[in-house]
Structure formats: structure tokens, C-alpha cells
What does this fold into?
Amino acid sequence: MSRYESKPVTVDKPVDEMFNRFSDLTYFEKQIEHLPEDKRAQLAEVHFASDSISIVTPQVGELKFEVIERSCPDKIVFGSPSSPVPLTMTVNFKAVTEASTEVATVIDVEIPAMLRPFVGPKLQQAADKFGEMISNLSRS
It folds into this structure.
């Protein structure tokens, strides 16, 4: 199993509020409308439903992540039933202060060793971009 971790981002929201936002992911769909045009363009192929996130990429097509575990207020785990390999994405929440939360994304994926040099950097980039997206969408 290979692990790819995002850079932690700090959001000026309490940990319970951040966890609750992830309990109904449609919150993020609404937030996209309030982003500047350049940020909206980056998220054009990301779609949110109450319990899932769908990402469309030219390399893979649609990749859907569904909530498979919630551990209030520390983490939410997403699985990807459509992935050709075992894959989970965990969003970890850690209270920094009463009014701020550190959020980090971890992608665990079963990749054959010979493919890691080719796929690994893309997965690391995906983990980082997801963390950045959370930060951008959680500001309001």
C-alpha cells in the first residue's frame, strides 16, 4: 500500500464545524459559486453530492469517492468503488485552537511497485490539490 499525504492547511473554523461541513458535501458545491473565476475553472470537473465527490480527469475518466467511515470530529474516510485498484482517501481534522482546524488529506492506494514512479507523483499532486481545494472552499 502506498500513501500520499497533502500538506496540512489551517482553516479558521472550529473542528466541529469543519467535520459537519464534510457530513453533507453539497455545502462545497454551493461554495464553488462564490470563488473567483480562476479557482472555479480549476474545479470545473469536481462535483459534490451529499455523500460523495466525483472528479473527472482525462487520464482516468470519472473517479468517485464515497464516504465509507466517519469518526467525529477527527476524520472522514472515502472509498472509491469504481477504482481499478484498492483506494481510500482520508480527510483528517485536528483542532489547532478553538477557532481553527488543521486539515490534511491522505490517499492510500494499492499500486504495483513498478508503476509507483509513474503514478506516485500524480497521486501526490492530487492529495495536495485536494488539500488546497478544501482550504479555498472553507474560507466562507
Observations:
- The chain has a mean pLDDT of 85.
- The two ends are 36 Å apart (CA to CA).
- Residues 116-137 form the longest helix (22 residues).
